[in-house]
Amino acid sequence: MTGAGWGQLVALLVLIGVSTPVLGAYMAKVYGGAAAPGDRLFGPVERVIYRACRVDEEREQRWNIYALSVLAFSLASVLVLYGLQRLQGSLPLNPDGQVGVPPALAFNTANSFVTNTNWQNYSGESTMSHLTQMAGLAVQNFVSAAVGMAVAVAFIRGLVRSRANTLGNFWVDLTRTVVRILLPLSFVFAIAFASQGVVANFNATRTVTTVEGRSQSIPGGPIAGQEAIKELGTNGGGPYNANSAHPFENPSALTNLLQMWGLLMIPFALTYTFGKLTKDQKQGWAVFAAMFVLWMLPALLAMSMESRGNPSFATRGADQVATATQSGGNMEGKEIRFGPQASGLFAASTTGTSTGAVIAAHDSFTPLGGSVPLVEMMFGEVSPGGTGSGLYGMLIFALLSVFIAGLMVGRTPEYLGKKVQAAEMKLVVLYILFVPLVVLGFVGISLLAGWSLSSLANTGPHGLTEMTYAYTSASNNNGSAFGGLSGNTDWFNTTLGVSMLVGRFLLIIPMLAIAGSLGRKQQVPASAGTFPTGTPLFAALLTGVVVIVVGLTYFPVVALGPVVEHLTGGF
Asked: Where are the domains of the chain?
């Protein structure tokens, strides 16, 4: 790899190292229930919201009421966003005269943004009005991310409380997340993006004459603000069809670095928050270490494979060596201003989280390089995962890890002083199985249905990867598109939309049920037989369990897709 590639990676690691303890400590105070920074500024705003919504901020909820609140809020969000899309042709702030979105596409898009997936079967600049972008999609970028963070904090409360029947108040957690964390961070990032040339206006599309004398359409819109929460909320749905590869969304290497930092910032910082709230920072660092390894190693693989270039081109005399005049490596599907190494790093980061933003065509990666974003999503968005969903997903794996460790030594497994028993493990198994069942089930049905194959641009192993990637992306609430699949059909709009709902809410419900069960238990003091979970050994065990579970689940489809393509030289 080149010095520029290593430099960007090192800069990103430094930024993560700085923001993780600082932001993590701040979020711990926000969710801790005591005085928090900014109370004089944010407190009055929150109280107005509580009064308007008739929320009693002192009243906490049992796990089932917390879950019902999540479902009710999400259902209302789906209905509002669906209606906004269907009626946008008759609504204001529509300078380009966009018409109403078709029913199946509106259903898919509403589910996509409410579940924090942000899969887009449409071209943003030619489909959505400014009002839909701002009042619909951008709003969901905030609140869908806040839902994930709220339920993650509820899960932590279930782990640390003793003989408690409640997990907090969803409406309070949601409000505090948006007002105190996501809005301030988004404001800072939006100003930074706008200062670097990201579009921020309410203009309609303009036709201009370029220096070459040709005509070009220049879309406008409030892009900088949406770009900020798109990354910070691990949303990924961009206002333009080219997403973060578009120069109006991501004009330079600096904005690219800020975008990667933004999408990784909160998921990693939440591990520090976890350590603070459990009053044992070693627990947070153990989870951080497992997440970091599962992100860093695939990122290095993707960067390496893309910087090596395409062997098929080399046999035909193409020069893919990095020099002062060319970036080298596999440049197919890449932006020149980013190159293959930054593209590999961004791909691993955006799929290791639940972001799904892209700066390159993953369909054009080398087989092994392209397998990285696919496998990162198959990890279940725990490397480091989405805002909140990454933390509670990794904590589910932590419960599984201590259960396996307990079986090995013949002792009742414990985590943070709570005994992990059959009731919790049944729910853990449901959590782990729901997504693979949806992914592999819909992939199998789509491949057996001949009429679905017409949506694929390729056949053979690459076509299997395209199909698997789509359902893996939707079910894991990632939203990135591999490419090569024409998904804007009734079948894919519907089945991908269903996959998003399963991947979001059929995981949140058992997770909150586990939290409620653990919260009612009495904490037991550590003994000589307690397996320590704040150690490098546990971090290694946790990492291994994630890899083994995912490997046993998905290895056949990965082997038949990118691995076969690599071994047969299908570059």
From this structure: 3-205+217-317+328-567
Q: pLDDT tens digits for 168-201?
A: 999 999 999 999 999 999 999 999 999 999 988 8
Q: How far apart are CA 510 and CA 493, in angstroms?
A: 26
Instruction: Report if pTM > 0.70.
Output: yes
Q: How many CA atoms lie within 13 A of 296 on its CB side?
A: 14
pLDDT tens digits along 453-462: 888 888 889 8
For residue 323, pLDDT beyond 70: no
How many angstroms from the chain centroid is the CA of residue 523?
A: 33
- 138 CA to centre of own chain: 16
Token pair 């990285």 in the structure block, residue: 372
Q: Which residues pair with 206 in a beta bridge?
A: 218
Query: Both ends of the chain: CA-CA distance in Å?
Result: 20
pLDDT at 310: 73
CA distance 287 to 538: 9
Q: In the structure encoding, which two tokens stand for residue 268, read together?
A: 């990693």
Q: Is the pLDDT of residue 324 over 70?
A: no
Which sign does the torsion angle of CA 534, 537, 538, 539 carry?
Answer: positive
For 301-336, the DSSP string reads HHHHHHHH--HHHHTTT------SS---S--TTB-T
Is residue 329 a contact partner of residue 309, using CB atoms and an 8 Å limit? yes
d(Cα 303, Cα 334) in Å, to the nearest integer? 13
- Sign of the dihedral defined by the CA atoms of residues 247, 253, 258, 260, in that order: positive
H helical segments located in 366-410 = 367-378, 389-409
User: For the residues 5-29, what does the mean pLDDT come to?
Assistant: 96
Residue 429: count other Cβ atoms within 10 Å of its Cβ. 12
287 or 411: whose pLDDT is higher?
287
Q: Which two tokens stand for residue 215?
A: 């005509």
The answer to whether the CB of 96 falls within 8 A of the CB of 205 is yes
Which amino acid type is present at position 134? Answer: M
Spatial separation of the C-alpha atoms in residues 465 and 370, rounded to whole Å:
9
Q: Report the alpha-carbon distance of residue 561 to residue 467 in Å, rounded.
A: 10
Mean pLDDT, the chain, integer: 92
User: Would the pLDDT of 556 be above 90?
Assistant: yes
Are the C-beta atoms of 493 and 104 separated by less than 8 Å? yes
Q: Coil, strand or helix: which one is 349?
A: helix
Give the number of other CB atoms < 10 A from CB of residue 405. 19
From residue 526, alpha-carbon distances to 121, 410, 411, 417, 529 in Å are 52, 16, 13, 7, 8
Residue 37, preceding bond cis, omega within 30 degrees?
no
In whole angstroms, what separates CA 374 from the centre of its chain?
13
CB atoms within 10 A of CB 410: 7
| Whether the predicted pLDDT of 313 surpasses 80 | no
Q: How far apart are CA 84 and CA 132, in angstroms?
A: 6
Identity of the residue numbered 382: V
Rg (CA), the chain: 23
Length of the chain: 571
CB of 420 within 8 A of CB of 413?
Answer: yes
Asked if residues 366 and 571 have their Cβ atoms less than 8 Å apart, the reply is yes
Task: Name the amino acid, one letter, at 107.
Answer: F
- State residue 325's pLDDT score: 64
Dmax (CA) of the chain: 79
